[in-house]
Amino acid sequence: MIEVKNVSGGYHNAEILKDISFQVEKGELFGVIGPNGSGKTTLLKTVSRILDVKQGEITIKERPISDYTAKEFAQLVAVLPQNTAQTFSYTVKETVSLGRYAHQRGLFQTMSEKDEAMIQGVMKQTGVEGYQDVPIDSLSGGERQRVFLAQALAQDPEVLLLDEPTNHLDIAYQKELLDVLKIWTKEKDLTVISIFHDLNLAGLYCDRLLLLQDGKKEICDQANEVLKRERIQTVYGAEIEAHPHPKVAKTQMMLVPRFFGRQRNNIITKDLLKITEEKITLQTEAPLRTMSSGVTGAGVGWHNTFVNRHVDRNYHCTDHKNEMKNYLIDHGFHPNDTVGMMTAVRLSDVAHQFREGEGFSALIVVTAATGNAVDASMGQERTIPYKPGTINIWVLINGQLSEEAFIQSMMTATEAKTAAVKELGILDIETNTQATGTSTDSILIGASQQGKMLTYGGTATPLGQLVGKGVYQCMKKALENYFNWRNN
């Protein structure tokens, strides 16, 4: 559809673009990203014929853009610049109607039914149909942006060139606008080239991205390939982290503020642990990075409050998550800040250790009993309904954990739990086979994300050895406490 071949160009004698080549396919949403001054707007102006190509060639539909007449080009390509100026106080509808000019014929040009349908349709899709008779100069910047987008879409182009289309738009209209563009590329084969400053929006919506640096092509590829942490840090000169979007298979960029390195010390000690018959709590000065299976705070997040709450062994609630949130609120804890668990175990039987490694340490807390012990490999054979979990494990680490270390620490802790259960000869009460835990066990790995970097947490690593030994010993101690209470 569009081919840019070895193009150089810029303003007057200033060469901004330097030997750039890429192709854009029909029906593609193609994003152009790069730091300020990298040549993004210059490239768009060159493709739209505002600036001349000094070297190389740009073709659309295998025809050089210089060969099109002005009207032919206007019928083929619509442009929405970053800054739009309005000389006269047209109404919204009059402004949008200008987009149909290239399709009208004759000396006295009038609107056809097709023109009117197109105008009404694009105004509705861009959310400005309610402003049809309103002067455009009375609208906000975001509203004007949507009007000028409607004007561009009213041209019914095959190619749409956009310079920061979400500029001035709030988050809802950003999504709505880009959703519309994405739908048009699929349903109408509209080809879109758009400049983005927001890398996350570009990554979510674009089929491919062109990354520019100093007027040169750094890379042109699939969004996830372009948005690599090391590449973006180098090109933009900013510290970032890259993480997968939780709903779609796209990479998202997270800025790391400079003050992050100067945050207050966040040291986990056993003195923070508070134990009563009703609940075990621990609160840290600053949030810990967490991975957990708690009733609240499940998944990956940041939390500074940790609660293991005692419930009756016959506890039953149709909405235990909401009940747990209400419990936390009633006791002065904010659910969004809290990893909350529940257990039927006597909390006085808890076992905990503070263990130190070389440059790091960990507080390990375990509550455990065997009243609903299960063999995980025999789950399909069981008929007894699940009851509240009885084994809850906290591993709170003073140190920086990588993603791998979080997952491996969870695996190590689980393996250590199972080893302790096996050594004590605990059986699944229904299948009479070796138990591996209880029916609804919960686990928490938390890290201060300060101090020594701990890349791995497998059983052969220093972190894994500390976690494995600590969880194993705490499991045995907690179960011994439980057996002593049950036998007395």
Overview of the structural elements:
The protein has helices at 40-47, 70-76, 92-97, 113-125, 141-154, 171-187, 199-205, 223-226, 229-236, 320-330, 403-423, 462-487; strands spanning 2-11, 14-24, 29-33, 55-60, 63-64, 77-80, 159-163, 191-195, 208-213, 216-222, 240-244, 251-255, 273-275, 279-292, 299-310, 338-343, 351-356, 361-367, 373-374, 392-398, 400-401, 437-438, 442-447, 453-454. The chain has 488 residues and is α/β, with parallel strands linked by helices. The protein folds into 2 domains: 2-255, P-loop containing nucleotide triphosphate hydrolases (Rossmann fold); 270-487, 4-Layer Sandwich (L-amino peptidase D-ALA esterase/amidase). The strands form 6 sheets. Strands 13, 14, 15, 16, 17, 18, 20 and 23 form an 8-stranded mixed β-sheet that branches. Strands 6-7-8-3-9-10 form a 6-stranded mixed β-sheet, with helices on both faces. It has a 4-stranded antiparallel β-sheet with strand order 2-1-4-5, covered by helices on one side. α4 (113-125) runs antiparallel to α5 (141-154) and α11 runs parallel beside α12 (462-487). The termini are far apart. The mean pLDDT is 90.
Could you name the ranges where pLDDT drops below 50 across 5 or more consecutive residues?
none
Largest sheet: 8 strands, mixed
What fraction, in percent, of the residue positions are helical? Answer: 25-40%
Number of helices: 12
Rounded average pLDDT: 90
**What percent strand?**
25-35%
* CATH fold assignment of the largest domain: Rossmann fold
Q: What oligomeric assembly is this protein in?
A: single chain
Structural class: alpha/beta
- CATH second-level architecture of the largest domain: 3-Layer(aba) Sandwich
Task: Return the domain count.
Answer: 2
What name goes with the CATH superfamily of the largest domain? P-loop containing nucleotide triphosphate hydrolases
Radius of gyration from the alpha-carbon trace, in angstroms: 31 Å
